[in-house]
Amino acid sequence: MPTENELFNAVDALLEQVAQDDLPDPAERKRLREAAGLSQAQIAAALNARREAVGNWEAGRTEPRPPKRAAYARLLEGLAARFPAPTAESVEEVSTAPETFTGRSTPAAAPPADQPRSRPPRAAPPQSAVVAPPTSRRPTAKRATPKPAPAAHAADPRFAHGPLAVIDVADGEVSAYCLGGLVLDVPAKSLPALVEWTLTEAKLGAPRLHRSGKDADPVLVLTDAAAERYGLPVRLSDEERRAGRLPEDHKILKQLGKANWQLTRRGFGPWARIYRPAQGSKRSCVQLCILGWNALDERSWGHAAHLPAPDLANLLGTYAERVMTPRGSTAVTGLELMTALHPPTRASEPDETGKRHREYNPGSLGTEPVGCAPCEAPDGHPLLAHLPRFHQRTPDEVLMEEAYDWARPLTDDECTKRFVVGIDVNMAFAAAANGTIVGLGAPVHVKQPVFDPKLPGSWLVDLSHIALDPRLPSPFTPTGERPTGPAWYATPTVAYAVELGHQVTPLQAYVRPDNGRYLDGWYNRLRDAYIATMADLGVTPSMSPEEFLAAMDAHKQNDPQMAIVLTAIKATVKGGIGKLRERPRGGGWRPGQSWPALARPTWRPDIRAAVISKARINMHRKMLKLADATGQYPVAVLSDCAVYASDGPGPLDFLPYKDGKPLPGGFRLGVSPGMVKHEGTQTILWAEGAREEHGHDLNIARYIKDGNVAATRDTGE
Asked: Which end of the chain is more exposed for a tag (fewer CB within 10 A), N or C?
């Protein structure tokens, strides 16, 4: 038996190991609060925080940020002095209780044969030490402090180790880094064996998002070292990159084939899916994410692919927990999330023999693609094969519901002001998706219909008689120009014309009687993910406008890795909506021919048009409210960004707030989707100089953020 001094020395060593962390672990935080008889609401009130935030701190989902962190640490320190942890005797009494998984591995006896070997996380510097990407993809000595795994992991023992793992090799040892700091030893010597290990031992994956859906398959993220270890090229050749996959005769494909593993039609690319046909309800599928093949596009994921493996596991795992396990690019994941929340089929009621069958799941898009209306078809679609090769369709032939790209010259009065200030709508497409009624089935052609604002579809109607103030863009065209005759519009656009008090008489329409609010659940999940991530970055819904603007100035510096998660969430929204009208990709396609995306039930250009239409209308409605109340008009609009001339450099210098309350129906500063944030400020001289140098049709909203007119164009999709 160890002596008392030896025990104390061991405890002192542990204290030195955790000295850098001024907060106890989440479970201890909860114990101390409950021991004092305090509620989460009482602590939240004392710290000027939300009750939900305190709950997240106690569950280990988030950590408090300064200055609340110091105050919370002081509270816990005081409670710990009054309510010390159980004594050694009481610990011995409960030491024989069954061990539960907490997301962190601890020194223990060897695991059973059916359990993967694990080891505790390695010592690491504070997370703030990892900011700039290292020059190599291999893990470096700098590693972020592992965050505790969310408690949800213990709810389903099949997925006890989280949704995914980053596979890396160091000193000849293969390791799987999981969410929460858990590290598993990987015994697999080949890629087929790695897939087998993942499905039989690793306990990776995530439960379904809908009771009629499917559990998320485990994802293995391969670093360069791991790719090399398992016989994969670290980088694709130019030919392989253009094809998006390895050639069919590659040795890895032969290995997989010998082990009876199959690939999807996309082949072995950056997001390869390896599977065996399902046996009943049991799925056998693993998805790979190969970093060296640009699986994590920098436009959506920043420098995530260059992070050390533990940090990348936490980053991707957080995204998977809040959005869903990634299935490919953020655009692909955004589309897959729609299906995961509205599975195409469900189990029927038992028949006379007691057997259940698959049947259509009401509210979903079903299992088969539906055709689009001719006006909804993009150029090159098979429905347009009869048109001459270089035919340019006019507004009365094609539905053109796109985001705003409009600008106008400044008036003399606006030129006397000092600044141009841009405001940007948070998650504009997500906010527009909320509550929008969209078609679920095929379109029905109607001649001379009576307009119904609750009936989704495309309407041929003449809105050219509607005249609005020229200082505002027209709500009916993406260019902001007044329509010149009949044109096709989605339901939200025509409904807005009626809202403004104008008569509309459609000439014909393609409507969808089978409809519903298909995107509501999609919006809710992405909204919650966005709000939770912003809270991690120190921005909460309870803030005043002044507090919100101050917090936004430095929110990305508070936690650079959470900032990457935020970017990925926003890219999931835009990409998912854009993917509803995916165009042909790759060589070999010719106009008039079909392309693979058309075979998807989620290829729905009409749904995309309805969301973009509503987003543009929402923007115009707020601009009109502001103009009527204050006489201020935008000088440029790009998608969800509007630019105004202002005497001061901030949004509060021109947005009307009375007693802290915004203009009803107008722009409102805040973190929630549909509210606005400060996009950027430049001087009036900059605006006039840019237009003088680059042409008077230059849209300064595109460059208001940093003033660099040579910046890459963003189509908003």
From this structure: N
C-alpha distances (whole Å) from 402 to each of 351, 370, 441, 542, 638 are 48, 22, 23, 33, 11
List, for residues 230-245, the tens digit of each pLDDT value: 999 999 999 999 989 9
At residue 88 the predicted structure's pLDDT band, cuts being 50, 70 and 90, is very low
Is there a contact between 153 and 101 (Cβ–Cβ < 8 Å)? yes
- What is the model's pLDDT at position 118? 55
- Two tokens, residue 424: 């940007």
Cα torsion 207, 209, 215, 220 to 10°: value is: -80
Residue 325 CA to residue 612 CA, distance in Å, equals 26
pLDDT value at position 133? Answer: 36
Report d(CA 382, CA 375) in Å as an integer: 12
Residue 542: Cβ within 10 Å count: 13
Name the residue among 327, 329, 359, 330 with its Cα closest to residue 340: 327
Residues present in the chain in total: 717
On the CB side of 86, CA atoms within 13 Å amount to 10
Angle in degrees, CA 572, 573, 578, rounded to 5: 95
Residue 603 confidence (pLDDT) above 90: yes
Residue 462: Cβ within 10 Å count: 16
Q: How high is the pLDDT of residue 46?
A: 86
- Cα(346)–Cα(333) distance, integer angstroms: 22
Kind of pairing, strands 164-170 and 219-222? parallel
Contact 407, 699 (CB under 8 A): yes
Residue for token digits 């115009």?
620
Residue 650 and residue 546: Cα distance in Å, rounded?
Answer: 10
Rounded distance between C-alpha atoms, residue 528 and residue 674, angstroms = 13
b/e string for 610-646 if b means 16 or more Cβ within 10 A?
Answer: bbbbbbbbbbbbbbbbbbeeeebbbbbbbbbbbbbbb
Residue 257: phi and psi, rounded to 5, are: -60, -40
Q: How far apart are CA 492 and CA 455, in angstroms?
A: 10
The DSSP output letter for 372 is: P
Q: What is the pLDDT of residue 264?
A: 93
CB 541 within 8 A of CB 574: no
Question: CA-CA distance, 184 to 206, in Å (whole number)?
Answer: 18
Alpha helical stretches, state H, 201-279: 224-229, 238-243, 251-258
Residue 53 has pLDDT above 90, yes or no: no
DSSP assignment string, 161-184: T-SEEEEEEETTEEEEEETTS-EE
What type of residue is 470? P
Model pLDDT, residue 493: 98
Identify the pLDDT of residue 2: 58
- Residue 484's pLDDT is 95
DSSP 206: B
pTM: 0.80
Contact 248, 256 (CB under 8 A): no
Predicted confidence (pLDDT) per residue in 342-387, tens digit: 999 999 998 888 888 999 999 999 999 999 999 999 999 999 999 9
Euclidean distance between the first and the last CA atom of the chain, given in angstroms as a whole number: 66
- When the pLDDT of each residue in the chain is averaged and rounded to a whole number, the result is 87
The residue-averaged pLDDT of 159-167 equals 96
Q: Among candidates 395, 411, 591, which has minimal Cα distance to 493?
A: 395
Instruction: State whether the Cα torsion 370-375-376-378 is positive or negative.
Output: positive
pLDDT at site 62: 81
Phi, psi of 625 (to 5 degrees): -60, -45
